[in-house]
Design brief:
By secondary structure, the chain is mainly alpha-helical. The protein contains four helices and five strands, in the order E-E-E-E-H-E-H-H-H. The protein binds zinc ion (2 copies). Keywords: Metal-binding, Zinc, Zinc-finger.
């Protein structure tokens, strides 16, 4: 017997006649909750309002895909918000620490001690400048990519118009265009 896994993705198994058919030639019977081929739909489910399986499956699968994509964006937002909050908090703490240092400067008695503090503060500044620059560059890059991506989505929507029938190879062209800048 042919297991479900052996069926190619483009085909569906008719539970009535036990054969595989192309998804375009199969139907879903909501009364019996079965996937059946055209012939079996006609012979045995004539009075049940069988639905075109391709459009039904595509609708479901598109909805699932879109939902999953939406969740990815949502997950990103949560993580990003957390990072943002931590960063703000950390930078505030570091600022507090440095303010305290400034207050302590006048209490410094020895020249060596002052020099050490000088060097340390200069090092802190260099470190922060370098690291934050790196981070902001990545963030800026990401922002640009998201911006381009959004423009691409907007463009696709405009091209698509009200009725969606054929939108095959637009994606590749769009990607090629966006890589120019
Ligand atoms: Zn059949
Ligand atoms: Zn039926």
């Amino acid at each position: 017997m042919v297991g479900i896994r052996a069926i190619p993705e483009t085909h569906r198994f008719c539970v009535e006649c036990q054969f595989n058919y192309h998804v375009d030639a199969t139907f879903f019977c909501p009364t019996c909750d079965k996937i059946v081929c055209g012939a079996c739909a006609y012979r045995r489910h004539k009075k049940h309002r069988c639905e075109d399986l391709t459009s039904k499956e595509m609708e479901t699968s598109c909805r699932v895909e879109c939902q999953a994509t939406r969740h990815s964006f949502n997950d990103y937002n949560k993580v990003h918000r957390g990072i943002q909050e931590n960063l703000t908090h950390l930078v505030e703490k570091i600022e507090e620490f440095l303010l305290e240092k400034i207050d302590n400067v006048r209490m410094m008695e020895k020249f060596d001690e002052g020099m050490r503090e000088n060097v340390a503060c200069s090092d802190y500044r260099q470190f922060f400048k370098r690291t934050s620059k790196e981070y902001l560059q990545h963030a800026r890059n990401f922002e640009n990519k998201m911006h381009t991506f959004f423009k691409k989505l907007e463009g696709e929507q405009l091209q698509r118009g009200p009725v969606d029938d054929e939108t095959p190879n637009d994606e590749e062209e769009e990607v090629a265009n966006t890589q120019d800048d």
